[in-house]
Amino acid sequence: QVQLVESGGGLVQPGGSLRLSCAVSESIASLYRLAWYRQAPGKQREFLAFWTRVNMYAYTDSVRGRFTISRDNAKNTVYLQMNSLKPEDTAVYYCSARRGPQTDDYWGQGTQVTVST
Predict the structure, then answer these.
(1) Segment 25-59, tens digit of pLDDT
(2) Within a 10 A sphere around the Cβ of 56, how many other Cβ atoms?
(3) In 3D, which of 26, 6, 3 has the Cα closest to residue 80?
(4) Cα-trace Rg, the chain
(5) CA 60 to chain centre
(6) Contact assessment for residue 117 and residue 14, using Cβ atoms and an 8 Å cutoff
(7) Are 53 and 101 in contact (CB under 8 A)?
(8) At residue 112, what are phi and psi to the nearest 5 degrees?
(9) Residue 29 in contact with residue 78, Cβ under 8 Å?
């Protein structure tokens, strides 16, 4: 069982930045895929970005150029740097981890991000 704990959410003004962290309970170097998702009220969970062990990255169109996924293997932590935040970025943000390309995802409990004046 991989455990993930997100942190770093909060209230930010439009145009501002936040960095989310996801602490993982085991070596992230051993995991195949780490990803960030979000879920706004009344909407389905939305993929944002992933990194894979073969060093592939991907972003959804709505955040490409504004959000950056990164990792610190020594800290077993994955980050999501979010810049130029918009009110429509308001959501609960989740990280996920996967042991293999076709295995189930493990999920954290989420962290709330609110973009508002």
Answers:
(1) 999 999 999 999 999 999 999 999 999 988 888 89
(2) 9
(3) 6
(4) 13
(5) 12
(6) yes
(7) no
(8) -80, 130
(9) no
